[in-house]
């Protein structure tokens, strides 16, 4: 099996949309407009390609994103800097192979050189004990709960402190050029737009 984690390409958005909407109630449905917004503005939008087939994806955003999700807003009201995991989806034939952990390792690597906190949420109804256990064993702690506005389902709001960020901040972001080294694995997405302009996304 050949696995590649890489940035999504625009011509793959239809496949990503179908994958997202095939999951069911565990993930909120998307439409093409919302997915295009993520493609344009998400700081992190990568797919897992297994033997040439898209087997999953993960989307995450910085705190500066102009994103209307009530869960994202909950974190922005309480934390000055974070990367927020909006959704992760693994196609049915590829579940149980560890792709979720690989994605979380990759997004943690992205986040820990930029922010002190990685955030996400899991639905409490219907309760998914596998998701709760996964996040707990990956170092996330519950920092709150809320009834998701517009959806009416309770969520557990989770956060993980990124211990490496202090070193990166002191060594690179607040010293020298004030930037990360110019290395491919530290680069931002070409389509990411931190300024966000006036664009907004629907709740997700």
Short overview:
The chain is α+β, with helices and mostly antiparallel strands and 204 residues long.
Q: What is the residue-averaged pLDDT?
A: 91
CATH class: Alpha Beta
Poorly predicted runs of 5 or more residues: 196-204
Please name the CATH topology: Aminopeptidase
How far the N terminus sits from the C terminus, by CA atoms, comes to 32 Å
Strand content: 25-35%
Helical segment tally? 6
- SS-based class: alpha+beta
Secondary structure: number of strands: 7
**Secondary-structure element pattern, one letter each:** EHHEEHEHEHEEH
What key phrases describe this protein's structure?
single chain, 204 residues, alpha+beta, Aminopeptidase, 7-stranded mixed sheet, 25% strand, disordered C terminus, acyltransferase activity, transferring groups other than amino-acyl groups, UCP028520
Topology:
Layout: E1 3-7, H1 13-21, H2 32-41, E2 44-50, E3 53-62, H3 70-76, E4 83-90, H4 99-111, E5 117-123, H5 129-137, E6 141-147, E7 154-161, H6 165-173
Parallel strand pairs: 4-5
Antiparallel strand pairs: 1-2, 2-3, 3-4, 5-7, 6-7
